[in-house]
Design brief:
The protein is an alpha/beta fold. The protein has helices at 2-20, 115-123, 128-138, 147-161, 172-182, 192-201, 219-228, 247-250, 256-262, 294-319, 333-340, 357-368, 421-430, 440-443, 467-488, and strands at residues 29-33, 39-43, 49-51, 57-59, 72-75, 81-84, 164-168, 209-214, 233-238, 263-267, 322-328, 344-354, 373-380, 386-387, 394-395, 405-411. Helix 3 (128-138) packs across helix 4, helix 5 crosses helix 6 and helix 5 runs antiparallel to helix 7 (219-228).
């Protein structure tokens, strides 16, 4: 029965993961993109209304069951019903006639719809596209614009008057981009491209075990959990008095059973091997089950569950053999690596992120003096965003200056008996050459080999290296060894 129950639970988790980014479910936290390109996080609850300000409102039930990534128009006349909009193909623009040179810069000379007229149209229930069409008809110089200017004008008006919304899947990329543009300090200015490099350098893969130390509201934990799928383990170490909220992780709509089974939390003060929990009662006063009240029973039950969860997390940490250590914390990274490296397996990746280069530079210099990491190196994330349109592909004018810095190293185990390859070669050359074997003919009384004209017998040169050649080879190996030591240092 236990096996069947476990199989059913794993199947339900897999089904929930497959639909997490496919369609909107009731109770999910949904990331909505507005016509102004801004984004908003909303919680879909039953009988709730999603308000988007000037872009309208609609019942939350209208979004449940609809796929992500589709743009829906809000129909105010039908009580906020959502209707899928068709995608418009991007067409080539060729315009050799209009050059914008006849457009007057004086705004007072251009006839436009007034604010009162626009408000009257809105009150009458006119659709957004009808308002835009009337504005274009009233614009006295719209036909003087070239095709590129007309397209830009239309996009500005659509972002202002159209009422539509696009639900975005709660992936780690979308959540990182949303918080980076809205509140970068909450995630320590972690950019989406830096997040992808962080996961790649840490070699995050399904079935792996990883220690995560982060102050990004659970964003890094959620990104690692997304790559693990439904197998693996994450141990998040924190400094909070209680388990951290991880509100960004909660907004990524992972199944609660998956988070409970794969993610464990542990406080810094509870991870020491000699830690002793406080002497709190874990049973009734007489040691049995005779509780004085229901409140006391529930209190002791919760306390026992917390104690068991803590012991499981401590056992996982002290068991070691973790595949990686990922840092995105406000604390100094070297002290964290020095405290946790003993729980890592051989060749495990150590990756630390920081928006400041000098923090990682100091940690790199300290790690170089240790014997438990290999090749600590620092890289800077760099990204340039492009507009890709027919005839208008170019870099964006505004872009972020820096995506932060990453420190990467590999966990190794020191072996005092190991030697370099060049030293081994040199040691073999320093050993005396073996004596030449005596010719078999001399044992049978045969005549010795005749000496050449130079006076030295040929047998003396068989199997014996010339002193000059030995000295030359030893000198070359010494030079190679010194060059290798300089490169390693």
């Amino acid at each position: 029965m236990a096996t069947a129950s476990t199989s059913t639970s794993s199947t339900s988790i897999s089904d929930a993961l497959s639909t997490r980014c496919a369609c909107v479910r009731e109770g999910d936290t949904v990331l909505l993109r507005l016509p102004s390109k801004q984004e908003k996080l909303v919680k879909l609850t039953s009988n709730a209304t999603v308000g988007l300000g000037k872009f309208g409102k609609f019942p939350a039930s209208e979004l449940v069951g609809k796929p992500y990534g589709v743009t829906y128009e809000i129909l105010d006349k039908e009580g906020g019903r959502l209707q899928a909009m068709s995608h418009q193909a991007v067409a080539e623009m060729e315009d050799a006639k209009n050059t914008n040179q006849h457009i007057e810069d004086d705004a007072g000379s251009i006839a436009l719809l007034g604010t009162a007229q626009i408000e009257a149209l809105k009150q009458s229930g006119a659709a957004g596209r009808d308002i835009i069409a009337q504005q274009i008809a009233q614009h006295s110089q719209f036909q003087l614009k070239n095709e590129f200017s007309k397209d830009k004008y239309l996009k500005r008006k659509e972002a202002k008057f159209l009422k539509h919304v696009t639900p975005l899947p709660p992936t780690s990329h979308n959540m990182t981009a949303h918080h980076f543009h809205k509140l970068p300090a909450k995630i320590r200015e972690l950019r989406p491209d830096s997040m992808s490099q962080l996961l790649s350098l840490a070699n995050v893969r399904p079935g792996g075990k990883y220690i995560v130390v982060e102050d990004c509201a659970g964003l890094v934990v959620g990104a690692v959990l997304e790559r693990l799928g439904d197998e693996g383990k994450i141990l998040a170490i924190h400094d909070a008095d209680s388990p951290p909220a991880f509100d960004v992780l909660a907004a990524m709509n992972f199944p609660p059973a998956l988070v409970t089974s794969l993610v464990s939390t542990l406080n810094w003060s509870n991870m020491a091997e000699d830690y002793t929990p406080p002497p709190l009662p874990l049973s009734a006063k007489d040691g049995g089950t005779n509780f004085r009240s229901t409140h006391e029973r529930d209190k002791i039950r919760r306390r026992r569950e917390l104690f068991e969860t803590l012991e499981r997390a401590r056992a996982e940490l002290h068991q070691g053999e973790f595949d990686g250590l990922i840092l995105a914390s406000q604390y100094e990274p070297y002290s964290i690596v020095d405290a946790l490296h003993k729980y890592l397996a051989g060749s495990a990746s150590i990756v630390a992120y920081s928006p400041f280069a000098h923090v990682l530079t100091e940690a790199q210099n300290k790690l170089r003096a240790t014997n438990y990491v290999l090749h600590p190196s620092i890289t800077e994330s760099w990204m340039r965003e492009y507009q890709v349109l027919p005839g208008r592909t170019h870099p964006m004018m505004n872009m972020s200056g820096s995506g932060g810095f990453l420190l990467h190293a590999i966990r190794i185990f020191d072996d005092p008996t190991a030697h370099a390859v060049t030293a081994s070669k040199k040691r073999r050359l320093d050993e005396p050459a073996p004596a030449p074997e005596k010719p078999s003919g001399s044992e049978n009384g045969a005549a010795p080999v005749a000496a050449p004209a130079g006076g030295e017998p040929e047998a003396a040169a068989v199997g014996v290296a010339e002193p000059e050649r030995v000295a030359a080879e030893a000198s070359e190996l010494e030079k190679e060894g010194e060059g290798g030591e300089r490169m390693e240092s």
